[in-house]
Every structure is written in structure tokens, then in C-alpha cells.
Write a structure and sequence with these properties.
single chain, 2 domains, 49% helix, alpha+beta, 4 helices
Length: 104
């Protein structure tokens, strides 16, 4: 379902569809129209690396993932890995229950 939201963003003249977790933009997770590739390469070749700054130069839309912020957990160590796995499992179960109740 969220993939459809991202893809529909392109039909609304946005060149970039970027996820937002309800608190902040998650710039690593985005769909970027292929027509922007030359501009992105120019940006990177100029030494810039802040992708969210590059997004600001283009029409982009935020895709709301506030119902699953746990999907954007930062995992750097083995210890970090255990907690997000539990959060994701719990979050997916909650979401399935929510969707089931709306279908009935």
C-alpha cells in the first residue's frame, strides 16, 4: 500500500517521494525519478553529501510512515538488533489488527 502512495507521488508532479516517520524526514528511504540522475551526480561530484539538502532543490513530497516509525530504527551493533526486531514484530501485528478491523 505505501509503495502505491510513493508511486502516486510521481503522478502529482513530485520528482522525489521521501519517507517521514512522523517526527523527521527519513531521507535515505525515497523514490527518486530517474530524470534527476544527472543533477544528483553533479551534486555528488561537487563534494556535497547531504541528500536532504539536495531534495530541497527539487519538488519532493513527504510520504507519511508515522504509523510505523519503528521501521526506521538505527541499528549499529548486535545489541541494537534485538530491540528493533521486537518493535517491528509488534508494530506489524498492531497494523494487521488495525487493517483487519477496518475491513470488517
Amino acid at each position: 500500500m505505501m509503495a502505491n502512495v510513493c508511486i502516486n507521488s510521481f503522478h502529482n508532479h513530485a520528482s522525489i517521494a521521501c519517507t517521514h516517520d512522523g517526527n523527521r524526514l527519513q531521507p535515505v528511504f525515497a523514490l527518486i525519478h530517474k530524470s534527476l540522475l544527472p543533477d544528483l551526480l553533479d551534486y555528488l561530484h561537487s563534494g556535497e553529501r547531504k541528500i536532504d539538502r539536495w531534495y530541497q532543490q527539487h519538488d519532493f513530497t513527504r510520504v507519511d510512515f508515522s504509523d510505523t516509525p519503528e521501521a526506521f530504527a538505527n541499528i549499529n551493533t548486535d545489541q541494537d538488533r534485538g530491540e528493533p526486531e521486537g518493535l517491528l514484530t509488534a508494530g506489524m501485528a498492531t497494523r494487521r489488527n488495525h487493517e483487519h478491523h477496518h475491513q470488517t
